Amino acid sequence: MVTTRLLLFLFLVYSANFIAQDKYPDPSICELINEDYDSLLVDDKTIDYELNKILDIIGFYNQDFFIQACTNLENAITFKHDGNNYILYGEIFLKSITNNSNLWAKTFLLAHEIGHHIHGHAIDISSINDYKLKKISLDEMRNNELEADNFAGYILGKLGASLEETSELISHLTTYEDDLHSTHPNKSKRLQAIKNGFYNSNKNIENNQPDSAYDYFLRAKDRYMSNDYSGAIIDFNYAIKLNPDLFEAYYNRAILRKKVNDFEGAINDYDIFISENINDVDAYLDRALCKSEMNDYDGCINDLKYAIEIDSNYSRSYFIMGVILRQIDLIDEAKRYFDISISIEPEYEAALLERAKIYSFKNLNSLSINDYDLLININPNNNYIYSLRAKCKYEIDDFLGCIMDMEKYLVEFNKDFEAYNLIGICKFNLKDYSAAMDYYDTAISLNSNFESAYRNRGIIKEKLKDFEGACRDWKKASDLGCMDCEDWFYKYCN
C-alpha cells in the first residue's frame, strides 16, 4: 500500500530547468559572456567561506554553486550552464564594494545572487553560443531584483547582521530616482524589500520561537504554503537537528529541495528516508524523478521498477515510468505503461493525455481523438483539450469538427492567432473563402508577423482574382521567411 501522510505536501515535476552533470567548474566559463577569465584571487578565499555560510542556512550543498572571477566584468551575474549554478563577478567590482561598505557587503552580494538562483531567475545558457538576457519586461526585471534583495535580507538577518548593516551596500549603490525605465528598482523599494526579508528572518526569534522538532516541522509546512521555501527548508533543518530520527522531515525537505532544483540534496534526503521506509512507493517515485533530472535514467528506471514491485496496482508508478520512457524516446514502451496506468485508473487524465499525444505523434489520429473524447467527458471545461482534438480532426480531414473544437477553445483562449489560422485553413478546404479570409485577417491582427496567415490569405486573394492583394501578402510572407511565397511573388507578381 501507498503510505498516506498527515502533513505531506506532494507535488510532481515532469520537466526541469537543467540537467545536472558532473560538478566540475569550467575554467572558460567567462568566455560564454565574452569576458576574460582569471582564477579566484588568494585574498578572495573568503568567498568560499561566505558561500558555505549561506548555503548551510538554506540546506544546499556547496557543490551546487560555482563562483568565478572574470577580469573585465563590471558587476555580478547568475546563470545556469551544463546543470551547474554559476555566479560570476568582476574582481574590481568586488574590491570596490568591499572597500566602500561594511564587512557584510560581500555576504549581501553573494546572498543576492544566490537569491536569483533560488527564485528561478537564472537562465540556462547551455544551448546558446552567446550570453543573452531573457526577454522579460523591465517591470519583471525590477521585481526579480526585489525578490533577490528580500532573500539577501533574510540571510543576513539569520547570520546576525543588523538591519543597518544589511542595508548599507544598497544604500551606497542606489538612488531614489524614478526607476520606470531601469532594470533595477530605486533605493526606497530595494531597502523595503531588504527590510521585509530581514524582519521575516527574525520573526521566530521575536515571536513564537518553536521549542521542539515537531513545532519546527509544523511551521515548515506553513512556510511552504506561503511560498517561503528557504524558510521552510531552514525549519526542517532545525527539526532534523533536534531529532535526527524524524524521517518525515527528511522526506518533506527532499520535496522542497526538488522544488528549488536541488536534486542532489533531494536524493540524499530520499536516501535517508528510504533507509527506514523501504516500502514507501512515493519516496521511490519522487527519487526517480530527481534522478531523471540529473540524467541518471538507469537509476531512475530502477527506482520505478522497484516501486511497481512494491505495489503493482498504483497507477502513478506506471504513469511516471511512461513519462520517463517517452523522454528517452522509447515511445512504444511508454505507451504500454500509460495503457497499464489507465487500466488501473480509467479516468487518470494525465495518462490519457500522454497516450493521446503518442497516438498523434504516430499519426494514429482516430485513436488520439478517442482519448481526447474521454478527457472531455471527464472534464468538459478543459478547453485546451478541444484544441488538441481539433488538430487531430484536421489531420483526418474532419474540417467541420476541427472548426467546432477550435471555436470552443477560442472561448477561453481568444488571443491564439494560430487557432484562427487553422480555422481559416478549414474554411478554405470547405471552399468558404470569405469566412477563411476573415479568420486570416483576425490572425494577422493578433500577430502582424505571422507568416502562415499572410501566405494563406494570399492564396485566397489569388483565387478571388485580387492579384494585387495576393502579391502584397506573398511579399510580406516572403520577407518573413516563406520560400514558396518568394517563388510565387517572383513568378506571378513581376
Describe the structure.
With 494 residues, the protein is mainly alpha-helical. It has 23 helices and three strands. A three-stranded mixed beta sheet has the order 1-3-2. The longest helix is centred in the N-terminal third of the chain and has 22 residues, at 138-159. The N and C termini lie far apart (74 Å).
> What is the global morphology?
globular
Average pLDDT, to the nearest integer?
A: 83
Q: Which class of secondary structure composition applies to the elements?
A: mainly alpha
The biggest sheet amounts to:
3 strands, mixed
Number of strands: 3
What is the terminal-to-terminal distance? 74 Å
In short:
This protein has about 500 residues and is mainly α. About 65% of the residues lie in helices and about 5% in strands. Among the domains are: about 30-205, no CATH class; about 215-275, Serine Threonine Protein Phosphatase 5, Tetratricopeptide repeat.
Layout of strands and helices, then pairs:
Layout lengths: L45 H13 L6 E6 L5 E6 L2 E7 H9 L5 H14 L19 H22 L3 H11 L13 H20 L6 H13 L3 H14 L4 H13 L3 H14 L4 H13 L3 H14 L4 H13 L3 H14 L4 H13 L3 H14 L4 H13 L3 H12 L6 H13 L3 H14 L4 H13 L3 H13 L3 H10 L2
Which short descriptors sum up this protein?
494 residues, mainly alpha, Serine Threonine Protein Phosphatase 5, Tetratricopeptide repeat, three-stranded mixed sheet, 23 helices, disordered N terminus
